[in-house]
Specification:
The structure is a single chain. About 45% of the residues lie in helices and about 10% in strands. By secondary structure, the chain is mainly alpha-helical. The strands form 2 sheets. Strands 1-2 form a two-stranded antiparallel ribbon. Strands 3-4 form a two-stranded parallel sheet. Helix 4 packs across helix 5, helix 4 packs across helix 6 and helix 5 crosses helix 6.
């Protein structure tokens, strides 16, 4: 999935090149893991958290997997709002426009629409 959306960035990082400053992901501190996945380097490097929590994987914006991750978190939290859902997703993944994606997906939730309508 990342290779489809971030192939040039993955190649540049694997060859120890710098990312183009015009890219949206330039400001993120990205690293390639041993499987070739783009992960964020965060300040939790020396914590006892597992690798997925310390270094979340980068998700593309308009991908079905990103939508499913947000929807799964929303359902897991019993149809919580955007902020709680996004916090749950960001434990493992990072989406560049996460809030925007979460809002659009949660606005389509049938159960939430039904509850808020009544």
């Amino acid at each position: 999935m990342q290779r489809k959306y971030f192939s040039k960035e993955t190649l540049d990082l694997s060859q120890r090149k710098f990312l183009n400053k015009t890219l949206k992901i330039y400001s993120l501190n990205l690293e390639l893991d041993m499987h070739g996945l783009l992960r964020l380097e965060r300040r939790f490097h020396f914590s006892d958290l597992d690798v997925g929590e310390k270094h979340p994987r980068l998700l593309p914006n308009k991908d079905r997997y990103s939508e499913l991750a947000i929807l799964h978190a929303h359902n897991k939290l019993f149809h919580a709002g955007v902020e709680a859902t996004l916090a749950q997703v960001r434990e493992r993944f990072w989406n560049l426009i996460g809030r925007q994606c979460a809002k659009s997906i949660l606005n389509e939730c049938f159960l939430c629409k039904k509850i808020h309508r009544s």
